[in-house]
Amino acid sequence: MPYDVVIVGGGPAGLSAALALGRARKRTLLCDDGPARNAAAEHMHNFLSRDGTPPAELRQIGRAQLAPYGVDIENGPDGRVSAIEGERGRFRIRLPSRVVEARRVLLAMGMVDEVPDTPGYRELWGKAIFQCPYCHGWEIRDRAFGFIAPSADMVEWSIFLQSWSRDLVVFTDARFDVPGALRARLERLGIGIEERRIRRLVAAGTSMLEAVELEDGTRVPRSFLFARPPQRVPDLIATIGVELDAEGFVRVDDHCQTSRPGVYAAGDAAHVQQGAILAAASGMKTASMLNHELTMELA
Q1: Predicted local distance difference test score (pLDDT) of residue 35
Q2: Which of 18, 200, 233, 283 has a CB 3.0–4.6 Å from the CB of 237, allowing a cystine?
Q3: Whether the predicted pLDDT of 141 surpasses 90
Q4: Which residues contact 252 (CB under 8 A, 6 or more apart)?
Q5: In this structure, which CATH number among 3.50.50.60, 3.20.20.70, 2.30.40.10, 3.40.50.10490 belongs to the domain 115-227?
């Protein structure tokens, strides 16, 4: 018997969608091969009733809450989806040990952060280098911040970080020039600008940043960095024929459906605004669209 929906991805978006679909009595399979995108983070924040919860614990709670509603789960290596074949109403989803059929597919796999090869970066990612001040800013408030700006257009975002710390330096990594008017604005606000190339990040212990070392050996003392490394969709999404928008996210319509009929998307891969609670809301919304469509087509 085919599933009504196979969900690919077991983070907040996938779990939320599975919960809603299970409660709507839709036969659902959740596939989660991990690891979580935020696995390096010690805690998750701004998630009402779960503020400060470790990401892995949220997943455990979510999976446990699916049990009463008959949602099937494939975790770890057994949950890896290698291909999505077929068409709306008759999809075939390939797992390592079996092929399952489904009327609809929901992609909830998030995005892949392409962490640069700057020495020290990967080791500190999620520990002293963050993307989102809403997620981590309170815990590190009033410390020495740095912002590695990916482009001239993003330099202004550094002003936003002053909600959490006034001790702030913008690093351009010698990739672009800061426009004169913006430079003057940052200087008025007391935000430093460092335009030399970054050689490496100097760690203090295993999870703390001591300084940003520049190409000439100068060290700029910083305790934490914010950065926006490039993102891309997971390999599976890139190979199944769904359209991406100009920013590289999965394009969805008002009903959360991708350009491939019967394939839906929720969470970080479908939205430029990212965060656990936003992904969970996206999963719930997409599940409601799916449930309505699946129910009405049999009426």
Answers
A1: 77
A2: 233
A3: yes
A4: 258, 264, 265, 270
A5: 3.50.50.60
- Three-state SS for the chain is CCEEEEEECCCHHHHHHHHHHHHCCCCEEEEECCCCCCCCCCCECCCCCCCCECHHHHHHHHHHHHHHHCCEEEEHHHHCCCEEEEECCEEEEECCCCEEEEEEEEECCCCEECCCCCCCHHHHECCCEECCHHHHCHHHCCCCEEEECCCHHHCCHHHHHHHCCCCEEEECCCCCCCCHHHHHHHHHCCCEEECCCEEEEEEECCCEEEEEEECCCCEEECCEEEECCCEECCHHHHHCCCCECCCCCECCCCCCECCCCCEEECCHHHCCCCCHHHHHHHHHHHHHHHHHHHHHHCC
Taking the whole predicted model, whether its pTM rises above 0.90 is answered as yes
89-102 residue pLDDT tens? 999 999 999 999 99
* Tokens coding 203: 């760690």
Pick from 58, 219, 207: which is nearest to 130 by CA? Answer: 207
Q: How does the average pLDDT of the chain come out, rounded?
A: 95
Residue 40: pLDDT above 90?
no
Tell me if the domain spanning 3-112+230-297 has CATH number 3.50.50.60. yes
CB atoms < 10 A from the CB of 264, how many?
Answer: 27
- pLDDT score, position 293: 95
Task: Report pLDDT for 28.
Answer: 98
Residue 77 neighbours by CB distance under 10 Å:
11
Rounded Cα distance, 288 and 100, in Å: 23
